[in-house]
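Hi support team,

I submitted a single chain yesterday and got back a structure, but I'm not sure I'm reading the token output correctly. Could someone confirm the output below corresponds to the sequence I sent? I've pasted both exactly as they appear in my results page.

Thanks,
R.
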Amino acid sequence: MRALLSVYDKTGLEDLARGLVDLGWELVSSGGTSRALAEAGVDHLEVARVTGAPEMLGGRVKTLHPAIHGGILADRSKPEHLADLEAQGIGPIDLVVCNLYPFSSDPSVELIDVGGPTMVRAAAKNHAHVGVVVDPADYGPVLDELRTRGSLGDDTRRRLARAAFAHTAAYDAAIVAWFDQGGAGGAVVQAPPTLHLTLERAQELRYGENPHQQGARYRVPGAPTWWDGVVQHGGSALSYLNLFDTDAAWRLVAEMARGGEAAVAIIKHANPCGAALAGNLTDAYRAALACDPVSAFGGVVALNGRCTEAVAAAVAEGPQSDVVVASGWDAGAIDTLIARRKATRLLEAPPYTSSALEIRSLGGSVLVQEPDRVGAERAEWKVAGALAPTEAQWRDLELAWVLCARTSSNAIVVVHDGQAFGVGAGQQSRVEAAEIAVRKAAGRAAGGVAASDAFFPFRDGLDVLADAGITAVVQPGGSMRDAEVVAAADERGVAIVLTGERHFRH
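Hi R., thanks for writing in. Yes, this is the structure output for that exact sequence:
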């Protein structure tokens, strides 16, 4: 039996090679793999001795030879294939162990592997007769199976072949993405003609949106996300909606605190039902909860700092939370919440990072867009009416704008003194969103500010806010009736600011 070993990642190589030699296998290798085996004192043949041809072109050509690929691709069930091998003096290869250059870690033309993918695909195609291993994690199981039964079973060879094709598919996808991102000296391609997404399962979930649906989290191979740095300290296993809502909460709380304040966001069904800035996280949590404590039940609490025992005690006194996510946890804080809220998932998370593209399924196709970046750059905003906001109103307008951008459209958010008091989310009518926001504020909107994620098509929405005592409003503008709405703001004594940028969220 003969095995061809050609790997970039040398993890576990020596143990695998020694295990194969102990089983009586002959090893063939080249390049860095051959040098590693020689240094380890493992007997093997160099590829050049098998092919009769030296490595060429700085190593670009070494395994691309009939003596190698004939040995891999021969169908042992066909006499004519066996006759060809005998006529050409080619020995069959029964196992190919190969992983590819780490293109994603340092993309360049020189890291575009040619010989490796060719061997992997050849072995995977001929998996009825040849085993192929691309993941060092499979070395142990492969050796165990060879020791116990003498050969790899059909199911194992099929599983390994699937992994091999997935490996080369991910590799090619990374190269295509590199070209689209301006690789090889080209220009960045916006909305390229094709997208090549290869995703690996990173996390199995309890279920999908509902218990009868399966769910899992996937990621691009070699491109870990902030989720891959999350540590769970307690609580039940995570479900699909836990991840969905936690992502929304962690993103929002990262965007809220632009001046280094303590920030807390409470999310329910991907929408904020409470949010606040304060001098410390305990006060920020209590202020966020005050917005809508009824809706906060079963929600996600996000803290933009370390959860101390004091913060944990405040959260434990509040309604049941499905998830609490923070940048760090004191041991006493974990104990406090586990004692009071055993099912609550306690997550420690690294800083939030977003993907380069957002992808959403649409029947049998997908919608793709750049992520929405929320900019609270008030220097670019325009005071449209007769009144200019005070400094305190400006700070509240910036917070309200961020919260509104992360609320389902149509959206209206009411804020006062760094604290959300009313959120009107996901309404077909903007005036109804305003009515919901002020109703939830329950009189606390007086003297506060409001944000609208898109323009007011009529003055009625602004009138609802003014009737509740709102003193300043931020909105994108762009309506045919902007002048009417601005005139209404002047009439009602409301400062009105136009951003020139809307933030629909569906």
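A quick pointer for reading it: The chain has three domains: 2-180, 231-348, 378-498. Let us know if anything else looks off.

Best,
Support desk
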